[in-house]
Amino acid sequence: MCKFELGTQVPDYRLPDVKGQIVSLNEQLNEHQSWQLIIFFRGAWCPVCVQDLKDLQESKDYFEGKNIYITAISTDRKENLQAMTEENGFTFPVLSDEYLVVLQAFQVHYHSKDAPYEDHGAHGEAAYFLVNEEGELLYQQRQTSPFGRPTATDLRKIVQYIKKNLKE
User: Fold this and answer.
1) Considering the entire predicted model, what is its pTM?
2) Distance of alpha carbon 124 from alpha carbon 144, whole angstroms
3) Residue ranges of the Thioredoxin domain (predicted)?
4) How far apart are CA 69 and CA 61, in angstroms?
5) 141 located within any domain
6) The domain spanning residue 88 has which CATH number?
7) 8 assigned to some structural domain
């Protein structure tokens, strides 16, 4: 199991996107030779998540200009994610982790039916991981509720800070 310390290798994943194509982190890293911003979000039903994804879509050119590619992952059903992606015109990969395999591998908080408060049933919470072209962790933030997550502007600042201060 990954320790999720800065500089350690994050786990690879293989998940279906909304079109049914299997997407792998290692294949993305090899294809783009770039950093990856991996966003876990609650689901298509979450208006805060959808707005965050819209903001990321608006910042997509900025991130890709810095050689950073976005991937979004949710435990929501593929059909729900497909409708949300089409409705909002998201052009980054949106992946479905219905069986919680990647959520567990990345140690993302899961709001289960046994949680101490009601919150739209069982679902994964928001989490953010920035990895370099070697798949090594540069930044992480995991939420246990819908609040406190970084905005697209915050993520841009984080990227600028890390790129400026990255040890060679």
Assistant:
1) 0.92
2) 9
3) 4-164
4) 9
5) yes
6) 3.40.30.10
7) no
